[in-house]
Amino acid sequence: MSSIPLKNERHVRRLPEPRSEPFYAAIQWTPLRYLQMIIGFILLFPIRLVLVLAIMVPVAVVCKFLSMTLDVDENGLAHHKPWQKRLLRFVMSFGGKAILRCMGFMRPVIKGRQASFKEAPFLMIGPHSSIFDMFAVGPHTTGCIMTLKSNFNYPLIGSIMRAQETVVVDEKQKDGSVADVLQTRLDSQETETPILVFPEGAIHSGRGFIEFQQGTFKYGVPVQPVVIYMSKDPGWTIWSFHHSLLSATVHTLSCLYTPLELHFLPVYNPSESEKANASLYSKNVREYMANYMGLPTSEHSRTDMHLMDTAMKLRLPYWAANVEYGILRDELSLNSQCLKELLKKFASMKHQHDGYLTEEDFSTCLKWPVAEDVNKLFSLCDTQKRGKISFREYAIAYADLLRPYMEDRVFVERSFKFLCQAPDQDGDDQAWVPSCLITADSLATVAGLHPLTDESDAAAVRQCLESHFLCDSSDMKGTLEHFITVVKSNPEVLVLLSFHPSLEKLNESML
User: Fold this and answer.
1) For residues 78 and 166, is the Cβ–Cβ distance under 8 A?
2) Which of 122, 180, 181, 376 is 20 to 30 Å from the Cα of 173, by its Cα?
3) CA nearest neighbour of 164 among 152, 173, 154, 182
4) Where are the alpha helices (DSSP H) in 314-370?
5) Contact, 263 vs 224, CB < 8 A?
6) Which residues contact residue 206 at a Cβ distance below 8 angstroms, ignoring those fewer than 6 apart?
């Protein structure tokens, strides 16, 4: 039995719009700030840049030497000898603090104390608003950092991270190698240094907390939250879609000073329910940190950042992909790969790159000549009733409307058989003889039965159907397999077809 909704039950959920754009951090420029930046760039930037490089280059050289003498196990984890630990600790503490001062950071205000590895194997650090967070935390903590493998590609910084007991996350690998390394460290009796984790996994504006990645929460061990207070008034240190690493560096070095505070919060011991549910554990820790700082939370994640990167490559504004991925994943079961494919299709349907899809774009792309059908589908997708569809609305419509039709095998086969029908030998247009192939004649008959079409419109509908279902030159053309392939890539056509009164009546009679 088909599970698709009847015509009076078709609807698309109206989910709340995202309350924030965490990856947006525009600086509010004023004449005074322009003057401060110009003076700072002339007087401070050159001196600070020379001093930072004068310290960072020797530190990187020493770290490069250490990385060449380290013992590395099969998991890629470095093991330090006692003398290497002492040398590295001195270099990172002295060099890291000196670099911070030269960059214009004030001596940090540190509250609380760092817990030992036995008390809390993981330090959860946030909000993660700058590449400089690593420099802010590293010299003032004892631990090894957990970072993306891509960060090793940065000059100097990569050499410094390689010399430490860095836990490397390679997003391209799905073999659980990181989990093995973490479990080995947790089980080891010799490990003394906690693992420094930025659980958000992405740099953002710092005006709130985005979704925490659940990987390190799956172990159900205590964690110590560490919050960073960094000057956000000028926003110099923020690295986002409006600020590249270069601009963030220039802004920071040109600013007179940057306040910095590190607060080590009490160790968070998970309850039994949190140990059994990593999602619940991560959300509660995030809420604890957000409440301490008085900041909001959102269900954005690093997937939103990847989608925004894709949007910009597709010549869409980055904010077009501001979908709050956590909500779409949990409420609509949409994964990141599905959203990426939908974003590509959304971009291909547009004529203008303003981030929205108009009804004209919809009609032009689908080539469906029955304006009433197109308007009906567009109205269902336009949940905010703005006369235009955002990508988020399109994704919600896909989950609530397009995907159910596409995945309903009963309705798909019924639609295929409907398009395969042909008049019987007596020429009675209302008596149908089943066929196993979609043909030009059967499509012409289906098009002519639509009550909203005259002869010219019927020809246009037939051409539209032929362009979708008979344009393939392969042997599969017109078969059920080919029909399924087409509707998977263009489920909108299947929904438009469901508006055909004859098929709609047939569907209602069989429910």
Assistant:
1) yes
2) 122
3) 152
4) 325-332, 336-348, 359-366
5) no
6) 25, 127, 128, 129, 130, 230, 232, 238
Identity (one letter) of the amino acid at 434?
P
Amino acid at site 364: T
CA distance 323 to 34: 34
User: Phi, psi (5° rounding) for residue 99?
Assistant: -65, -45
* 393 and 384 Cβ atoms separated by less than 8 Å: yes
**Residue 388 to residue 358: CA distance in whole angstroms:** 5
Give yes or no for a contact between 75 and 188, defined as CB atoms under 8 angstroms apart.
no
CA 169 to chain centre: 17
- Helices 480-489 and 455-469, interaxial angle, to 10°? 100
What CA–CA distance (Å, rounded) separates 124 from 266? 12
Residues in the chain: 511
124 within 8 A of 194, measured Cβ to Cβ:
no
Most confident by average pLDDT, 147-151, 189-193, 279-283, 460-464 = 279-283
Closest CA to 96 of 63, 151, 140: 140
Peptide bond into 317 cis (omega under 30): no
How would residue 422 be classed by pLDDT, with cut points 50, 70 and 90?
very low
| DSSP conformational letter for 106 | P
In this structure, the strands spanning 432-433 and 260-264 are: unpaired
283 confidence band (pLDDT: 50, 70, 90)? very high
Cα–Cα distance between 342 and 336 in angstroms, integer?
10
Name residue 174's amino acid: K
- Each residue of 215-240: pLDDT tens digit? 889 888 999 999 998 765 544 555 55
The predicted pLDDT at position 234 comes to: 44
Distance CA 443, CA 343 (A): 31
Q: Token pair for residue 126?
A: 């946030």
pLDDT tens track for 134-193: 878 888 887 777 777 666 667 777 777 766 767 766 666 554 456 666 776 677 656 677
